[in-house]
Design brief:
Elements lengths: L1 E4 L5 E5 L2 E5 L7 H5 L4 E3 L10 H10 L4 E4 L1 H8 L8 E3 L5 E4 L2 E9 L11 E7 L3 E3 L14 E5 L7 H11 L3 E5 L6 H17 L3 E2 L7 E3 L1
Parallel strand pairs: 3-4, 4-5, 5-6, 10-11, 11-12, 12-13
Antiparallel strand pairs: 1-2, 1-14, 2-3, 7-8, 8-9, 9-10
Amino acid sequence: MLLTKYTHACVRLEKDGKVLVIDPGTFSESGEALTGADAVLVTHEHTDHIDRTAVLSALRSNSALEVHAPAGVAGTLREEADIADRVHISEPGSSFEAAGFNVRTFGGQHAVIHAQLPVVANIGYLVDENVFHPGDSFVVPDGIDVKTLLVPIHAPWSKVGEVVDYVISVRAPKAFPVHDALLNELGRGIVEGHVTRIGARYGTTYERLAPGDSVEV
């Protein structure tokens, strides 16, 4: 399948004429990513992972589009009665088909940012037993070998050592960055240097993708 990265956490997957978009958030080029989409997966409710205005607009303009999201996100979208039947609740430990892609779900909880901030639901999605998008968590899918890992390389809830340990834990042959909009080039170089060097010791090849870059996976 073809994977295209957008700014921050959004990616677009294309296969056999079908399009699946994950986390079209407000930091991303959501309108562009959603053009022609058949299905959308949302990991959690934070606005850098779902641009509600853009998603609702896409749902209204494309009667075939369906969205899968945690209950809180799905409930908010379902308040728009005309599209409610095309918004589905994602729960951890489940599997379903979305636009011809096989999807499995993992996790359930957003990483802790601070004890005084509430923890929200977060679903990691494995697509076609290949691409894994963890959302805002370091959940490791159990019982499967991930082929392509989307690594959240920078976040308010993580540190560099945890990013590296996550790559080591999953041990996917390929890894690409997500959740990187808040990094400047100096910070990115430090994080990616560690991920590239140490990840390689455990069999992971890390490759930087800039917004708009595409790669076959």
